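Students often ask why inverse folding is considered easier than folding. One informal answer: many sequences map to the same fold, so there is more than one right answer. In these notes we will look at a single instance of the problem. The structure comes first.
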């Protein structure tokens, strides 16, 4: 299946709060965004689109300079809007992989496994089991219930889709807010599966996440 990749990088990193937005900060000597670009290219994907905030154009050019060819488009005010903008710029793909720039610990083998999963599904995502026990709380943080951990998974990106199903699901979405693209495709009637995720696909959200991921990526074997 001919595949394209959309890397969404149009966020402002408000929870991290650093001068340089997290997707353009350096991790293990390279811009965060460049790790994901290299990984999808190494998996054989040639069409790579990156959705960015317009004021980050220069940062993005620098972060992708000298690497695989990419097309840069303007994202939107929400992640969903950035995905829509990126999808509009993708042509000629039977499969589309959507990935958060804020998850630089991507291995080419994960990309390959996700695309392979599309042989029998409309959408596929990496996910990890939940280690801690879970509680439901009220507005005052009083415990009002226990949530069974078995049968729950923590979903990561990249998420891979059959392009026709993905486009139809986004067209049918309207104003609804969904947690991720897999939820959009499932709401559109698509069959979705999870593959075993990777701790290195953790999302950079807070300052301390950089040190954790730096260490995990140092242990990289694939
Ligand atoms: N994203 C995007 N367009 C937006 C918002 C987010 O493309 N309008 C992207 C981010 O760049 C990131 C991914 O979606 O790669 C996940 O978002 P998140 O981790 O929330 O990043 P930010 O929105 O940048 O961070 P924050 O929420 O702390 O501001
Ligand atoms: Mg955000």
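Output (designed amino acids):
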């Amino acid at each position: 299946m001919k595949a394209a990749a959309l890397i969404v990088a149009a966020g402002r990193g408000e929870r991290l709060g650093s001068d340089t937005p997290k997707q353009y900060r350096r991790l293990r000597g390279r811009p965060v965004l460049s790790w994901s670009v290299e990984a999808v290219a190494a998996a054989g994907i040639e069409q790579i689109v990156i959705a960015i905030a317009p004021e980050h154009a220069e940062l993005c050019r620098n972060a992708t300079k000298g690497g695989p060819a990419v097309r840069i488009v303007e994202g939107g005010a929400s992640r969903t809007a950035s995905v829509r903008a990126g999808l509009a710029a993708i042509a000629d793909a039977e499969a589309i992989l959507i990935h958060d720039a804020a998850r630089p610990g991507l291995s080419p083998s994960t990309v390959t496994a996700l695309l392979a999963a599309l042989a029998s599904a409309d959408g596929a995502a990496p996910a990890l089991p939940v280690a801690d026990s879970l509680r439901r709380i009220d507005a005052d943080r009083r415990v009002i219930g226990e949530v069974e951990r078995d049968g729950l998974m923590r979903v990561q990106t990249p998420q891979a889709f059959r392009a026709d199903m993905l486009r139809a699901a986004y067209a049918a979405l309207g104003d609804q807010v969904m947690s991720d693209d897999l939820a959009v495709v499932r709401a559109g009637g698509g069959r979705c599966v999870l593959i075993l995720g990777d701790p290195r696909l953790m999302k950079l959200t807070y300052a301390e996440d950089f040190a954790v991921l730096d260490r995990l990526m140092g242990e990289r074997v694939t």
